[in-house]
Design a protein that fits this description.
With about 150 residues, the chain is mostly helical. It folds into 2 domains: about 70 residues, no CATH class; about 80 residues, no CATH class. It is built from 7 helices and no strands. It starts with a helix and ends with a helix.
Amino acid sequence: MTLLAGVVLSRTAFGNWIFATGGNPIAARGAGVPINLVKVILFVSTGVAAALVGIIQAIEYNSGNATAGLGYVFQAPIVAVVGGVLLGGGYGSAFGVFLGTVIFGVINVGIFYTGWSKDWVQLFLGALLLAAVPANSYFRCFAMTAR
């Protein structure tokens, strides 16, 4: 999925439209990007992906659980920001999100094997978020000025 998302984001016009819509929708609309269509396609693809995960979990556990993914509501944006996605939109990469996911997995499994309470995962994710947001802003400003 990371490779597919990376190809779509970096090698297609639709990937450019996604970044333009997230970065500055007014400028994107002025450049001819159909921002409403881009948003609808992204929302639908997110819904299809969530449905696929629900189907996979139902098959794996032979039952449904409406509360199975509640913790991911806060973890998913944190993982994305740790992976380099800007909260304001317009910048990020599929590989960065993959690395953010790996970092989250290492922290999650590492805390489990240390014998600490699973509540510590949230503390470490919060600390990562506090470090990632200013780092992302700094690197974005540095990339914009270093031409």
